[in-house]
Amino acid sequence: MIHVVHHPAYVTEAPARSTYRWGKNGGIRDLLRAQGEAVAWTEPALIPRAWLEAVHDPDYVAEVLEARVPPEKTRRTGFPITEQVAFRAQAVPGGTWTAAMLALEHGFAANTAGGSHHALANTGAGYCVFNDLAVAAVRLVEQNVVARVAIVDCDVHQGDGTAALTAGRHDIVTYSIHAEKNFPARKARSTLDVGLADGVDDDGYLAELEATLVPFLDEHRPDIILYQAGVDPFVEDRLGRLAVTREGLIARETLIADIALARGVPLASTVGGGYGEDVMAIAQRHVDAILTLGERLSHRNPARIEA
Ligand SMILES: [Zn+2]
């Protein structure tokens, strides 16, 4: 049984003038529904405003929730913040937090949205409104659910917002492996950054991931991993610069799962970047990730364990 967190508000109409592929969340939902009984669904509550304000500037939170984000921030985000987008922006961090809580119980859970790693304290950026990873991590440690969270970010773009929002904390550590020449031009400082050259292939990517993530986790010993499983390192991605194949991405999830499993660390995944014309192909790559992680990490036979 793979625990999946999904909110109907994730699937929205594209606001006018948006280049972001909003349809992929519906595609992810439909592909996972086709898995039938193998998937257990949870609908998250909206994240309480106080937890948004624990990470984001309260003025920016108000701008979003009241759908009055000024034009310069709208441009930086990449789409207008309508009331519908604002509602979705409260559902997504609720989903990442809920996935983390389910992962602590079941070994693994996936949020079908999220990974909004570019959002900063006082503005959205790069198609991200609120930083669900930072919001969920801060709530987990401040409610003493866990002592330390590792945010592991494998999106092809650096997790700059996550790094900035959690800088200086000992209870949240951040790892980002990304294409060094890709957006954002000005990088933030994660606890550990791994910048890759353009064109890195499956073997190069997986070797660098293992060589850096294993010592990172062994040094920081997190109680849970929040994993941004962006699929934009894919060779044909419109905004990637790497050359990782579909098989390479699946091998990445197997490696991540095995590294977590070997250390007994539960893992909650989010989606992340994935850009191109074929929305269903992108959705399929996200579902590949969720199913690969879930099959390896979800506790076996929970009924027998309880008995
Ligand atoms: Zn990305």
UniProtKB/TrEMBL annotation:
Record keyword GTP-binding present: no
Please list the GO terms describing molecular function: histone deacetylase activity; hydrolase activity
Domain of life where this protein originates = Bacteria
One of the GO biological process terms: epigenetic regulation of gene expression
Q: Which InterPro entries match?
A: HDAC_classIV, HDACs, His_deacetylse_dom, His_deacetylse_dom_sf, Ureohydrolase_dom_sf
Query: Which positions fall inside the Histone deacetylase domain?
Result: 39-284
Instruction: Identify the Pfam families for this entry.
Output: Hist_deacetyl
Recite the UniProt keywords alphabetically.
Hydrolase
- List the Gene3D superfamilies: Histone deacetylase domain
Under SUPFAM superfamilies, the record lists:
Arginase/deacetylase
The keyword NADP appears for this protein? no
Q: What's the family?
A: Belongs to the histone deacetylase family.
The protein's name = Histone deacetylase
What is the native source organism of this protein?
Sphingomonas sanguinis
